Amino acid sequence: MAEQDDEVFKLFLEESREHLESIEEDLLALEAQGESVKEDLINKVFRAAHTIKGGSGFFGLEKVKELAHSMENVLGLIRSHELIPNPSIVSSLLDGADMLRQMLTQTASAEEKDISGIVMALKNCLSPTSNDQDAGKVNAQNEKSAEEAPLVIFNDEGVELFSVCPETLRMAQRMDKGGAYVYLLKYYLLRDIHIKERNPWDVIQELTSISYFIDSALSFESAGTLEQSDVTPDLPLYILCATVLEPTLVCDCLGLTPKQVKIILAKPLDEKKPTPAPHTSVSASSPTSSNSLGNPETKFPPVSKKPELKPEAAAAHEAPEFTAATRTKSVEAEPVLPQSEGSEKNSAEPASNAKGKDTQDSTVRVHLSLLDKLMTLAGELVLTRNELLQNVGEKNIERMAGTAQRVDTITSDLQEAIMATRMQSVGIVFSKFKRVVRDLSRELGKKVQLNIEGEEVEMDKTIIEAIGDPLTHLVRNSVDHGIENPDVRKRKGKPEEGRLDLRAFHEAGQVIIEIIDDGKGIDTKRVREKAIEKGMMTAAQASSLSEKDAINLIFAPGFSTAEKITDVSGRGVGMDVVSSNLQAVGGVVDIATKAGEGTTIRIKLPLTLAIIPSLLIAAEKDRFAIPQVNLLELVRVPAKDVKKRIENIGSATVMRLRGELLPLVRIKDVLHVDDPTYIDPFSGTRMPDQRKNIADRRTLALDSTSSQVDDPRCGLERRGLTSTMQIAVVTTGDFSFGIIVDALLDTEEIVVKPLGVHLKHIQEYAGATILGDGSVAFILDIGGICQSAQLQRQQALLEKRKKDSVQAKVDADEQSLLLVRNGLNERLTIPLSLVTRIEKISADQVLTVGNKRAMTYRGKSLLLFKVEDVAQVEPLPESPFYFVVVYIIGGREVGLMVAEILDILKTRLEVDDLTHRQNGILGSVVYESKIVLMLDIYGIAEALAPDLVSASKKQEIENHEHTVLIVEDSTFFLNQMRIFVEKAGYKVLTAEDGRKGLATLENCPEPVDLILTDIEMPNMNGLEMTRAIRASAKFQHLPIIAVTSVAGEDAEREGKAAGVDEYLIKLDREQIINSCHRVLSQQKHSSTGK
Amino acid sequence: MNAAILTSVHTETVELVMFRIGPLLCGLPISDIQEIKKIGSITRVYNAPAYVRGVIQLRGQIVTLIDSCQKLGMDPLVLGTQTRIIVLKMNEENVGLLVDEIEDSLLAEKNLIDAPPANMTALQKKFFSGISLLSKTT
Known about the structure:
Distance between the termini of chain B: 24 Å
Radius of gyration of chain A: 43 Å
Number of helices of chain B: 3
Radius of gyration of chain B: 17 Å
Strand content of chain B: 35-45%
Strand order of the largest sheet of chain A: 17-23-24-20-19-18
Distance between the termini of chain A: 95 Å
Oligomer: heterodimer
Helix content of chain A: 25-40%
Shape of chain B: globular
Shape of chain A: elongated
CATH class of chain B: Mainly Beta
CATH architecture of chain B: Beta Barrel
Strand content of chain A: 15-25%
C-alpha cells in the first residue's frame, strides 16, 4: 500500500512538474500578448494552477495549495479579461511558479517555506493599487468578492468541511460538466471503494465524467478510534461537486446511498447578493429536501480538514490526471487519532516522510510510437533467435548465415531505437533561458533580444541535464558582462537592444551549441593583467601567451575579471566549473571574441556516449580504435614518395597534404613503445625496428632518383623492406594531424567501455572496447594525444615560421609559373594564369605558310611561334615532337612552341627586369640557382602577328582622356601594367602602396577615372584602400579593379566584399584592358556629369 | 587456553585465501575475492603506470591487472604455469591482482592476527593489514 501511495505521489509530482515546466514559457508568452491574451493559452495556464492546487491539497501540501490558489485567482481574472498581464503581474506569477517548483522538488521542506511575500504580491495584483488596469472593473470584482463571505459547509457532526467562495460555486455551476445542483458526497473508502474492488482513480474518473469537481476533504477523525468498536472504522471522503444530475440519478450513477448524497444547492446561486453573515453554514440535507440553509443534521463523524483530490472537468478534455489512493492515509493515520491539530500533524508527518526524499527527475518521456517500434523489434529478435537456435541445432550452416545477418540488422535497429529513447531535444534547456534573459536584463537595466535556433536538435538525456547549468552560467555571463548598457551601446553606435543568439546544430558527428552576443567582447589585455594580479603567472609569461591562450585563461579556477561581484556572476567560480562540467560529458568549450564587437562561445558535445563507429588500426601486436568522428582521411605514402613528401622541420615531422603542412606522429611514439618492432614483409616475422627518423627508409634502391643512394642515412644497416606509410589523418575539431600506423584494419561499431581507476588518467586513451574475438582494444583519445605529443605547440611554431616568411617578402607576390625548356640549357617561364592549354604535337603537324607557322587545331588554324623568332635565345632544337603552350591574344588562340614542359613552380617572383630585358623577354627570375627567363608572350605575339594584336587595340584610341591610377608595390608589375595601360591609350598615375594610392587620389589635380590595384601591399593593402575609398563620399563611386596574383573564390569574395568592382589576375593584359574599357564605358553611360 | 576463555564468547574467524607474492605468503579475506582465474590473454597497456601489467576481458568488463610484485617494490612478476589472477571486488569495479601461486585457504582466528611488524618498509606496510600466525608451518 505504501508503495502505491508513494507511486501516486510521485505521479502527482511528475505531472505538476510538467505543468510548471511549460508554465514559465507560457507566462512569458502571456506577457508578450498583453491585452490580446489568447484564449487557449490562458486556459492552459489556469488549468495548470488549478490542477496543482487540487492535487497538493490532497497530499497535505497546504502551502502549495494556498500558493496555487492565489495564482489561480490572478489567472482567473486574466482569463475573464479583467486583468491585463503586465510585466509586474507576470513577475509575481513567475515568482509564484518558481516557489511552487521549489516546493514540489523539495517536498520535505515544502510546508516550511514562507510564501507570504509572494501571496501578498499576488493579492496586490488583484487590488486596485496595481497600475495598468481598469481600476473600475477590478474594484467591482473586488467588492464583489470582498462583500461576499465564504460559504462554510459542515458535515453531520458540525465539523467544518469546506469553506467555499460563492463565486466558486457559481462558476462551478456554470462550468461544462457542472450544473445547478451542488452536492456534498460522502464516500466511505472501505465500503464504497475498496470492498467493491474499485480504486479511487476509477471513482474520481466516474465522478468527473458527470460533474464538475469543486473540492474534497478526507476526514481522519471520523475514522473513529479503536474504542469505538461498534462502528467499523471507515474513512469518509467528502466531495463537493456541481452537476446537472438530480439527486436520485446521482445516487444511481455513483452507487451511493441517498444518505451519502447531500444537496448543498439545487439552483444557481444568486448573483452578487451579499450573503447574510459570515460562517453561514450550509447543511447536508436529504436528497429530497430543497435548498435550505439550515442546521446540519448529520450522522457524519467528526471531520478534520484534509486534502483535496485533483479536480478538473475541463481537464476531462485532456487525459484525467489523477492521484488517487486516499487509502494510504488511512493506513498511516490509523484509527487511533487524537484531535484535529494533532491529527493533522501526524498525518502530515507520515505523508511528508513518504515524500521525504527529494524526488529528482529520473524519468524520461518516450513517444508511444518509439515504444511500439521497440516492441516490434523485440518480437522480431525473438523469432530470429528461435530460428538461429534451430539452425544451430540442425547444424545448417547456409541458413545460419542468413539468420545471422538478420540478427545483425535487427540488433542495429534495436540499438538505434533504444538510443533514441534517451534522446531529448535541446529545446528543453533553451526554453528556460527566455526567462533567465528576461529577468536578468530587467534586473540589470539592459535590453537584450534572445534568438533561439535549433531547438529540435536532440542529444542524450544525460548530456542535456549536464549542460543546463553551464549554459545558464554562460548565458548570464553574456548578459551581465558581455552586453553593454543601452546608453553605452548607443554611444558606440550599436543598436540599444543587445542581441544574444543561442544556436544548436549538428556538425561532424557532434552537437555544437553557440552562444553569440554582440556585446563588448573579452578584453584579453585585462585578462592577462588579471592573471598577473592573481599571481597565476609572471608578466613575461602573460604577454607571451597567444590570443587563444589568453582567452582560455578565464577558465582557470578563481578567475574573474568582473570589477565587483554581482549576484549574477563574478564570484570567480563560474567558468572553471562550466568547463569541467562540460568536459565531464565529453564536451569542449571554445571562445572567440572581438573587442568591442562581441563574443562567440562554441561548445562541442558528443551525440551519444556508448556506441561509436571507429576505425581499427594495428600498432605493434595490438589493435587500437580511432573514433570515426575524429577521422578525416587515410593517406598512403608509397615508399619512393616518402622522402619527397615527408619532411623534418626542427624536431617536428610534417607531411605535405594538398599544399598544407600536416604534423605527423608515429603511433609508436604516442604509445611510448620502447621496443618497437615491424613485420618483415619477406619473412613475415617481427623484427626490431632501428629507425630513428620517420622519413628514414629501410631500403636502398626502391626509388628512381639516384641521388638518394648516396645518402648515408639509408645505409646498409637498414635493410629489409618497403616502408610504405599508412597515415590516418585525424582531428580534434580545431586541429588536424596525421598518425603513422602499422596497418589499417576494419571499421567497426564498438561499445565504449570505461577504463578503470588505474588507467583513467592516461591521456592517450578515451576508453577501451572488446573486439569480436574477445581481445581488448584501446580507444585513442585524439585530443589527449594532441596534448601529450604537444602537437599544438609544434603547429604554432610552424605557423609562426610560415607567417614570418610571409612578412619578410611582402612585395614579392607568389605566382604560379610554367617552367619550360627551350634550348638545350635554357629554361623559360610563363605565368601559368595566362596559359590556356598545353598540347603535344608532332613535328609534321607544323605547317609553314609564307613566314608564318601554323597547325590545324580543333578545326581551326593555330598560329605557332617560337621564342627565337623574337628574342635572342637558343634556337629550338629539331625534334620529332614539340610542346605547344596555348594562350589567347585578341580573342584568338595562339601557340608557343617549346621543347619540354618541366614543372610548375609556385614561387615568389622577384623579377629582375633589367638584366635580360629584350624583346619577347620580360625579365628573369632565379630558380634553383639558375637563371630562368620570363617570356613576354604578348610581346612575342605582337611582334610576329601584329594584326592580331592591333585588332584589340582599335578601341584604345578613344580612351586617351581617361586617367588610370595603378597601385602596385612591385616595380616589375607596375611597369608591365603601365606599359600596356598606356598602350591602351590611358593616362597613367602610379602609387606604391595603398596609403600612397589614397594620397595620390586626394591630391591629384586631374580626376582619376579608374583604379587598378594590387592587393598584397605593405603599409596599406588593396582591400583596406578600397574600403577607405568606398567609405569616402567623394570617391565612393570610383571604379576599382583588383589585379592580383592571389586567386581563389575566397579571395575574390573578400575583394568584392571590400568594394572592388572586378577581380583579375595579374599580367593577363587583355583581360585587364578589356575590363578597364568595360568599366569605364559603363561609368560613362551611368554617371551624371562627372 | 585460559586466554581464550577470557576473550570473546565466540572467537571470530575469517576465511583467508593464501597466495604467494615472491617469497611472501599472503592472504586475503575470501569476501573480498570475486574469483580466481588462470592467465589467459593479457593485453598490454602502453603509457600505463609500471605496476599495471595489462588488462583482461572478463564477461564484458575490462579488468585492470596489477602486478603484485611490482606494487610491493619487488622485481616484476615472471609469468609461470602457477601464476594466477585474483579478481578483487572493489567499490565500483573489479581489479585483478597477479600473483605467483595460490596456496590453501585458511580459517584464521581474528584474535590471532597481529599488526604488521614495525620494521616493514612504509610501502609494504600500506598493503598489509595484519599478520596471522599459522598453527602449522607449511
